[in-house]
From TrEMBL:
Residues 23-50 form the Catechol dioxygenase N-terminal domain. This is Catechol dioxygenase N-terminal domain-containing protein. Signal peptide: none annotated. It comes from the Bacteria. It comes from Mycobacterium stomatepiae. InterPro entries: Catechol_dOase_N, Intradiol_dOase_core.
Length: 50
């Protein structure tokens, strides 16, 4: 994973960590979950302390 992550690049970087999964359903679930959680974090402007 790149060390040059921003709020705009982190979602895709995390989703790519599932590219090697051999279980397609697991991959689908995790990629979708990451998208939703990251969208939520950006929407409510989570801070590091939270």
């Amino acid at each position: 994973m790149s060390t040059n992550l921003t709020e705009h690049t982190i979602t895709e970087a995390v989703q790519k960590t599932f590219d090697t999964s051999t279980d397609e359903r697991f991959k689908q679930l995790m990629v979708s979950m990451v998208q939703h959680i990251h969208d939520f974090a950006r929407e409510v402007r989570l801070t590091g302390d939270e």
